[in-house]
From TrEMBL:
Keywords: Transferase. It comes from anaerobic digester metagenome. SUPFAM superfamilies: Nucleotide-diphospho-sugar transferases (SSF53448). One of its GO terms (molecular function) is transferase activity. The keyword Transferase applies. It holds the Pfam family Glycos_transf_2. Transmembrane segments: none annotated. Residues 5-140 form the Glycosyltransferase 2-like domain. InterPro entries: Glyco_trans_2-like (IPR001173), Nucleotide-diphossugar_trans (IPR029044). This is Glycosyl transferase family 2.
């Protein structure tokens, strides 16, 4: 059974198109994780009245990536053999790409990523994007997957994972996507690029400079932390004298652990 996990935070202008794309796929279960939304996202989701949609509603803001882990746990409980992750604001024409990711998992991949920066498209990137790709590629080199993945990351673009991945990688680590990637590689799981979607084709709205800087700092810190995990060292998000926090400290790992513990120990 294929499940799709969709983090949703104030996406009233985009969530319907995103969910309609998923409803066109062979997904038996679609799990929107409504993450502290204050707009009409929740109503729009319920108004679709699809038996395949199983929303989870959190009034508190969970923080970046935490909804993925919550949704993955729900999918696992309900017997998913594969899980597709797609952010609620990604409403580009990407249905065929999502099918490619699903197909890669069906063919034996445990983690199929999206390449959002094809080699021929990297010219003209901002210094911030170039720096971020450097850290992403450095992580992939550290875990022995640079040749296979380039700079692809579960932090960017849709991706899919297998039931083996869900069984082997602690679900709490899905809240820090590069760490989940490092653990998959460390555990000998099969990781690959499943599709290519140039960043602009994802359909996500443009963000302001402040947000872009914080997102970049978050992902860089995640990559540094992932390298520590891969090397069995104490976790750190620092490089030199710089600590890359970004949005990391806003991740509600306390709520995530509470949810995971409640499920495992009713």
């Amino acid at each position: 059974m294929l499940a799709a996990v969709v983090p949703v935070q104030n996406e009233e202008k985009r969530i319907q198109k995103t969910l309609e794309t998923l409803l066109a796929l062979p997904a038996a279960l679609i799990i929107p994780v409504i993450n502290g939304s204050s707009d009409l996202s929740c109503r729009i989701i319920h108004d679709l009245k699809s038996p395949h949609i199983f929303p989870l509603h959190y009034r508190e803001t969970l923080g970046i990536d935490v909804p993925r882990a919550i949704g993955a746990r729900t999918a696992k409980i309900k017997g998913a053999t594969a899980v597709l992750f797609l952010d609620g604001d990604m409403n580009g024409e990407i249905e065929d790409n999502l099918r490619e990711l699903i197909r890669k998992v069906e063919e034996g991949a445990d983690m199929a990523l999206t390449n959002c920066y094809p080699a021929e498209k990297t010219e003209g990137l901002s210094p911030l994007a170039t720096k971020l790709l450097h850290y992403r590629r450095n992580l992939n080199r550290e875990i022995g997957l640079e040749q296979a993945l380039g700079s692809a990351s579960p932090s960017h673009g849709p991706h899919a994972v297998s039931s083996r991945f869900l069984a082997q990688v602690p679900l709490v680590e899905l809240a820090i996507p590069p760490v989940s990637l490092a653990l998959a590689a460390k555990g000998g799981l099969k990781v690959c690029v499943g599709t290519t979607i140039p960043h602009k084709a994802l359909g996500s709205p443009a963000k302001d400079a402040s947000h872009s800087k914080k997102i970049a700092a978050t992902i860089i810190g995640d990559c540094l932390e992932a390298i520590c995990v891969y090397r069995d060292k104490l976790r750190s998000r620092s490089s030199g004298t710089v600590d890359y926090d970004g949005y990391h400290s806003q991740r509600r790992l306390d709520l995530l652990n509470k949810y995971l513990n409640q499920v495992e120990h009713p």
